Amino acid sequence: MQAENDSLTVMLDAPDDFAGFRQAARVLLALGAAPELVHWRWSDTLATQAEDGDLFADAGAAYAAAADAGAALAAAADARADAPPRVITPEALDRLAIAPGQPVHIRKPQLAVLRHACCHRNPGRFMLCYRWLSRLQAMPSLAGDALDADWREIERLARAVGREIHKMHAFVRFRPAQDEKGAPLHVAWFEPEHHIVRAASGFFRERFSNMRWAILTPDCSVLWDQECLQWGPGATQAQAPGPDAGEALWLAYYQSTFNPARLKEQAMLREMPRRYWKNLPETQLISGLVAGARSRTGLMLAAQPAAERA
């Protein structure tokens, strides 16, 4: 395969398939494949919304189908070597015979930044990361250039993903439900801005390891069965359970502990942007609490003795 002369499409397993990207990039760099000739695509098999039935019943079959489809694409590409662009999977690239060369070395913190950047919803994220790696191969000193335009953009994408992972950890709210067999299952609905569900799910596995839970999102869904994480297709909010009695108690507690004297609206909005409000039970109270905060603060101050106010 003359990757340096041919346009090549790399088919990844998922929109956040950093392992596949890394595997493909390692081979492409060894082949000297120019960034402008490499196109990155990914499978969206899990993004298909399941309107009925068990979201997780066909997760294994979906992955097997994706793998079979990828293998078929790679085989077809090999059979049509004279018909660019060719489509190939990272696994097929790894099977190519390549001459040993000098690998590209980057520090672990930079690898973590690349991993986060590849979870961004920017359609050019893989192209950007591969271009930086290609330039780094040609100029190793680039690894220490914090002002490089490509690296600054990669860091910008990674920061946005990091913030979204933090927000998912903070704003997921589980509600008690039952699975199709009647067994207890806590279910949450979340709408991430980026492809972060896999990156964020380890936190929930560690924190809620002793209960069965599922997180539904439009892109994909994840189930923890107290043994392993299982992946399923994207869902709709209608498939998530509604409020329960425990939620009413939580709202009553939230309202009783709200302190208007400590309200900082701008700081609150920075930590809890409005786009998350619709999926948080306590936010149905916030508008009313904020509206009355100033008057309540005035009454509290007016009730203090003059000496204390001075």
Descriptive overview:
It is a single chain. The protein is of the alpha/beta class and 310 residues long. The protein folds into three domains: 8-163, no CATH class; 172-239, no CATH class; 251-309, no CATH class. The chain is 46% helix and 12% strand. It is built from eleven helices and eight strands. It has a five-stranded mixed β-sheet with strand order 4-5-6-7-8.
Q: What features would you highlight for this structure?
A:
single chain, 310 residues, alpha/beta, 3 domains, 3-stranded parallel beta sheet, 11 helices, 8 strands, 46% helix
Q: State which percent range the strand residues make up.
A: 5-15%
Distance between the termini: 82 Å
For the residues shown, what is the average pLDDT? 79
List low-pLDDT spans: 49-53, 58-84
Content-based structural category? alpha/beta
Strand order of the largest sheet: 4-5-6-7-8
Following the backbone from N to C, one meets helices and strands in this order, namely EHEHEHHHHEEHEEEHHHH
Major sheet characteristics: 5 strands, mixed
- For the secondary structure, the number of strands is 8
Percent helix, as a range, is: 40-55%
Number of helices: 11
The dominant shape is: globular
